[in-house]
Protein: F-type H+-transporting ATPase subunit epsilon
Organism: Demequina lutea
Amino acid sequence: MALSVDIVAPDRTLWVGEASFVSAPSVEGSIGLLPGHEPILSVLAAGRIKVVELGGEDLFIDVLSGFISFDHDVVTIVAEPVATA
């Protein structure tokens, strides 16, 4: 089983693909998601999103705020990414 993941900023897509694991910083603490997890909707805190791609590669995205939604193995993250120079 895999997670279908969409990570978007207000003005662009940051990453779309399939993953085996996603973690994100919520205002209530870190959230870790595997296939089959209970549905959630949470506000993101500043921190780092981690995506473990199906091939085993780790992807990291630093964010300032946003929200995460998870249902039926679909992860949707709308986030304000940290600006890069």
Observations:
- Residues 3-81 form a domain with the ATP Synthase; domain 1 fold (CATH 2.60.15.10).
- The mean pLDDT is 96.
- The beta strands are 3-9, 12-26, 29-33, 40-44, 47-53, 58-71, 74-81.
- The chain is about 0% helix and 70% strand.
